[in-house]
Amino acid sequence: MASAGGALLAGGTRALARVRPARKPLHPRGVVLRARVYRHGSAVPTGVPWLDEPGKDDVVVRLSRAVGLPARLPDIHGLALRTGSGDLLFASTGWGRVTRFVLTASRDPRGRPMTTLLPYRTESGAVLLGARSVGAETYELAWAHRAGDWQPFAVLRVTTERAPDQSISFDPVRHPVDGLEQYPSVVRLREPSYAQARRSRH
To answer: Which of 15, 167, 173, 181 could form a disulfide with 121 if both were Cys (CB 3.0 to 4.6 A apart)?
Structure first.
């Protein structure tokens, strides 16, 4: 099932690349900005140091629109984040126990919460990550067990300073955060579309 889903995603990415040639078939337009993550740590341990332990990280983020539609039209918004140990990708969804797994579109990039959509494997079980706007260029980062309650662990503050490398590519399959392991089924689902996107950049 996951392999079939991955083939469908790859086919969709390939079709977009043909219709709209671009270095990034998905999320073609975006801006890469400097940001900082202030981690206060999770009250409920997950076994993932980046979620559990307090700290401060200088990061880069890419804010984008998935399809690249004009700003006046709703689109799925994306937030890609590169930490010191790996990449995370968030897309606009709901925040409820079911809707956190459902993509949603909006005009306002901060109008909807975002999640990683698919869970990671950790010592404490399956974990989904989420980000929601709590102020101007400020996001609360949280995690949840599938349909469990959200557990805040950090605040992300995005600056207006553009990062030097605007062509950076984020890939959570090749660059996972320490302790956040991709399930094999998730890799089978995601990797074909990521591979197609990589080919379109060359």
So the answer is: 181
- For the chain, the domains span 29-181
Instruction: Report, as an integer, the average pLDDT of 172-198.
Output: 82
CA-wise closest residue to 44 among 183, 172, 149: 149
Q: Are 132 and 150 in contact (CB under 8 A)?
A: no
Q: What is the pLDDT of residue 10?
A: 35
* CA 121 – CA 127 distance, rounded (Å): 6
Q: Specify the 3-state DSSP secondary structure of 19.
A: helix
Cα 17 from Cα 82, distance rounded (Å)? 25
* Calpha distance 149→129 (Å, rounded): 12
**pTM value?**
0.83
